[in-house]
Amino acid sequence: MDKKVLIFLANGFEEVEAVTPIDYLRRAGISVTITAITEQKAVTGARGITLVTDTTITELLKSELFTPASWDGVIVPGGIPGASNLAACKPAGNFFKEMNAAGKIIGAICASPSAFLAPLGLLEGKRFTCYPGWEKQVNCGTWLEENVVVDGNLITSRAVGTAADFSLALIESLVGKDAVNTLRKAALL
Fold first, then answer.
1. Those residues with Cβ within 8 angstroms of residue 50's Cβ, 6 or more apart along the chain or in another chain
2. Does this model's pTM top 0.90?
């Protein structure tokens, strides 16, 4: 069975933290659906790069695909104000809670673990990492100063410089170590 993940983008997302997982996961044969939390498919990142998404959250809400049964994982990049914009999107937050309850892979990097996941209660009892300093805003879980932290279905990472490691951890959790080794060899990682 092919693995399928959603990645949610909000205006102000960190471009490297979005594009790296999209690219690496697709190279590993994982279907990635890029989803705007806005009404428009064009979403502009924190550095002014605009990406055109595959769909919008509004389109997904109208479909039969907005259920955990349709997906193997869900990912959010960081970026400011991207992480804050994600936190303000109730449908995205509710979907992450449903995905977590179903034991599906949850990936968040940079500011998103603290700005998006923590307020949803998704870091309760979990080990996590995030952009240095943002852990001070989190009153739950255990912060670790590591590039990537995997705790069950939760995968968190620190910043732009750890986006490749984050992507490889997502791939390993979704399709296994062999896919990571194949990608490492092909991409000269």
1. 42, 43, 44
2. yes
